[in-house]
Amino acid sequence: MNQKFTKKQELLITAVANGHNISEASQLAGYAKGESGRVTASKTLKLPHVQQRLFQEVQSMIGLSATKSLKQVVNLSNNAKSEYVKLEASKDLLDRAGHKPIDRTQTQVVGDFNIKIDLS
């Protein structure tokens, strides 16, 4: 779906993706002042093609932040003053690299049960 976006829609998507609430984003995008602009912006954000574009914008921002976040976790793993913080950062890095330990669960059945074996 190659849907065209208005300039206001583009600005609204960018503002919301950058963390502004609907009221702030509607003003930044140039919608009417007050409740009217907020309502129009809210309706715009419910349009499927706008939601899809907003999702893509947020995913892109997450991707750009991922390298910075990874660098921070590696730094904590290597240089944190607290041994606990070093351990947790190291475990998180291992988990994300696919080396998560096996989850062990214990199941306990409470109650009566009967087993009948007919050998005839």
Structure characterization notes:
This protein is mainly alpha-helical and 120 residues long. 63% of the residues lie in helices and 0% in strands. The chain has 5 helices and no strands. α1 (7-17) runs antiparallel to α2 (22-29), α2 crosses α3 (35-45) and α4 (48-79) packs across α5. The longest helix has 32 residues, at 48-79. The termini are far apart. 9% of the residues are buried.
Low-confidence spans: none
Termini separation comes to 67 Å
Give the overall shape.
Answer: flat
Q: What's the pLDDT, averaged over the residues?
A: 90
Main beta sheet strand tally, sense and closure: none
**What's the helical proportion of residues?**
55-70%
Characteristics of this structure?
120 residues; mainly alpha; flat
Outline of the structure:
The chain is mostly helical.
SSE topology sketch:
Elements: H1 7-17, H2 22-29, H3 35-45, H4 48-79, H5 83-96
Helix pairs in contact: 1-2, 1-4, 2-3, 4-5
